[in-house]
């Protein structure tokens, strides 16, 4: 072959090798840069490119980092919980736990405790009805039946002189579980679980816990056999009475064999916790002769019982899998209280300071980052996708990164990702924390592509309305899996 002909053939062959195979097959979109595909999808979903902020960075394989409006400050929604939980793992330690102590200033004689029962609370984000029952059952097992004194709740663990910032976007239910605020007196998420069931006798309603201060006015009628209706078919109304009781009225129709439920937060945390402990003690056959109140535990009080929480790793999993707002907000207060300085007089603000200092120690630019309450249940919280990606990269290399990553929902498998991207190749191949507020949708976490490269990805949609944002962010994950940005697809980073 003539040298010039051979040279031309070689050049042609090299050019063909640089063209992706799908393009040779006639697919006109396969060589479209990844960023361009996502921007086109953004215009279709929310009509403006400025509505998104996205960053995708390969962690352990080939690929080109991608940034779309990555330095734009955005409202993150619940992906803010990843910052709070990661900070807690590194500043408190994964084995951190909480102890709730029961003490007395009296003495035990026969089957009676003569003195007050003090409950010293520790800010435990997940002190529930089951553990309180267990510890009160221990007192019952010691032979005590009567407590001749007051029930005193000690909530000195937090300093909150100015209270907490309100979140006013309450929708149509100001008593909804996602609105429960953190408190030194928090137990059982401060929730009542109301249930109504229909059978051949009619309908029956009850609550857990069952306390004297909350009454149910059951107006649900039983009907014949039929499909069980959704919860939105029932009307729940709440009346706060002059005698400090609450009446919950429920109306609707319920076929036999069906039930409906509702979770509501109706009492101040200190009143709820006192009522819960009294209800448990009453169910065990015990009684108090005194009142319920808040106060400080005397220094000479004697320890009677203790209940210990699970470790922080378990708490982080509960927070991130199901996006538990009150636990995340409580955790920020715990961080603040644990690292309180002499000049600190507010544990929320101290917690925010500690998280900012921790981020800076990780060489993460915190300019423009607004944490507010640690849960993302806020119109004030802000972060950029680039900052979020840097935090995810830090988690990837952290000794506690595995604990954080394992706490995130698995795609199409569990938590808040259970129903997303089902029947796709991504099932179980990514761990993604989701965020949802009015006019806000977001994702953050780690996902794989078809070459088994893991990507740190964060995406935020801020737009009115944002209801198409979820599908857009699912497309980001889907596109990262099937057509990951790399040099062979001519993608370019910002």
UniProtKB/TrEMBL annotation:
Residues 1-25 form the signal peptide. The keyword Signal applies. One of its GO terms (biological process) is peptidoglycan metabolic process. It holds the Pfam family Peptidase_S13. Belongs to the peptidase S13 family. NCBIfam families: PBP4. This is D-alanyl-D-alanine carboxypeptidase/D-alanyl-D-alanine-endopeptidase (Penicillin-binding protein 4). It comes from Tamilnaduibacter salinus. The lineage of its organism: Bacteria, Pseudomonadati, Pseudomonadota, Gammaproteobacteria, Pseudomonadales.
